[in-house]
């Protein structure tokens, strides 16, 4: 990968946007920054580049999303499924059609948001379910490993629980901290970044504290209702991006 000015600027902007989302919403919406990186590198290279940066982002984010913001009963079940999902995702990465996975995940996510919209934007609260939590963690682990899109399955489980905005953000932040730590080594094995990629990672490091801090400031300004509306809106953006990736892949 050649380190041109445009490559550096666009990658820095993409990393900053991902960090901003982590600061504002806790995690799960990294895919919104990936289109920027796709302008200057292929998806596998982007995955290898982001894998170590995700770990740095998550560790810095925990400065704001401390243990008091974690929903421990949910995390125990979610992380159990996540570990299995990342392991399965590593082997499925080479076997499954990524385009089909993207389209299916997009369709499920859009259906989930459509139901919320038809209810007038009101969240229908549901009790915790061990089986649903494990299934959400498993699906999130597979999709985050295959397409850096683990946010929708997790959101579809957590949003109906009616958690406070701080607990929602803190729970997603810790969930993806564990997930990104687990998937860093497999992604580096799949991508094997070269010297220029490591230099680019180092250049992007200053974007992490700035992006997370600015996102956290936005989070503080949002009330509970605004926070949930923003999360549903981001789910639509994520789903449309997945749908585009899947369909354009078949048309290429």
From TrEMBL:
Keyword terms of this UniProt record: Cell membrane, Membrane, Transmembrane, Transmembrane helix, Transport
Topology versus the membrane: Multi-pass membrane protein
Ranges that cross the membrane: 6-25, 32-55, 75-93, 100-118, 133-155, 195-215, 227-244
Keyword Ion transport included in the entry's annotation: no
Pfam family, one: TauE
This protein's record includes keyword Transmembrane helix: yes
Predominant subcellular localization, coarse grouping: membrane
InterPro entries on file: TM_pro_TauE-like, TSUP
Subcellular location: Cell membrane
Superkingdom of origin organism: Bacteria
Protein family per UniProt: Belongs to the 4-toluene sulfonate uptake permease (TSUP) (TC 2.A.102) family.
UniProt name for this protein: Probable membrane transporter protein
Source organism (scientific name): Bordetella pseudohinzii
